[in-house]
Specification:
Length: about 150
């Protein structure tokens, strides 16, 4: 595994639906944070649940943020900012031009693996981000070591 990133979550690839958001809560190195995952044009995209405007969660009350009628944009539930699903770029709203923080998603052997860069983990640690999940949630735990064939 590369030292500049950490494997933080594994789930079945089939659970990621095209142009819909799947919200997962992750625990890693004493951090708790949420990630939104989608499939856009057959590729998996994953974004940290933090809107660049005031660095608050996109989701309200732990729910997934809204998706527009065309299912091509993620809408922040707090400020109405619209982000392209393909790359997380804000195309309208108070943070226009900013982007959501992307999380590396790798599909292998029917599993989806999420990797977070050490820089993002350090930022979350420094902030104790507002995107942290609430204690006692039923967030899935990280299974055993990743299959080395997938890296």
């Amino acid at each position: 595994m590369r030292p500049d990133r950490a494997l933080v979550f594994i789930m079945p690839s089939a659970e990621v639906v095209s142009r819909q958001l799947t919200r997962v809560e992750i625990e890693h190195e004493s951090l708790r944070f949420a990630v939104h995952i989608t499939r856009f044009r057959r590729e998996v995209r994953a974004f940290l649940d933090i809107c660049p405007h005031f660095r608050v969660p996109l989701a309200v009350a732990g729910q997934a943020p809204m998706v527009d009628l065309r299912r091509s944009h993620i809408i922040c539930g707090r400020h109405g900012a619209r982000f392209r699903m393909q790359d997380g770029l804000c195309v309208s709203g108070p943070c226009s031009g900013d982007t959501l923080t992307s999380i590396e998603a790798v599909e292998c052997l029917g599993q989806l693996q999420l990797f977070v860069s050490r820089d993002v983990l350090d930022e979350l640690r420094a902030r104790r981000s507002p995107a942290c999940a609430t204690p006692g949630s039923d967030a899935p735990s990280l299974p055993g070591p990743a299959d080395s064939r997938c890296e």
